[in-house]
Amino acid sequence: MATRRDQVRVVSWVREAREHAGLSAAELARRAGMSREGLTFIENGTCSPTVGTALLLARELGTTVEQLFRIDNGGPLPVAFPDDDPQVREMADLYLTGATLDEVGKAFGTTGNTVGRKLSRAGVQIRRGRSARASQATPQPGGAP
Length: 145
Hints:
Number of domains: 2
Largest sheet: 2 strands, antiparallel
Number of helices: 9
CATH architecture of the largest domain: Orthogonal Bundle
Order of helices and strands: EHHHHHEHHHH
Radius of gyration: 18 Å
Oligomer: single chain
Distance between the termini: 45 Å
Strand content: 5-15%
CATH topology of the largest domain: 434 Repressor (Amino-terminal Domain)
CATH class of the largest domain: Mainly Alpha
């Protein structure tokens, strides 16, 4: 059965590629002939670019459209790191062995939010609501963890 176009979610790697290239959002937007706000919407996954815009972004970042955008059909994505980024791979390894996003962020000198965004875009399923240790805790009598 074919996937309907309105059911497809596109995962964007544009922010990671831009940061890797050392470009600001304003500079990449200028080079690609678009607004900084439009670029931010694409980076956040709020909207998908036109084919032409995707091609321009890829050209300016020295990569391909396939490296910048992936289809997410609702389930967890296979872990796929752009340019086989060893830092993101190390973050994923630490997170998947039970560390919280904040702990991983502290280990890499960044925030838990940044780690969560990078891992989510790499296809790592992020546990929501509780830390890894809290989600594995056994409930104690009286309802207290």
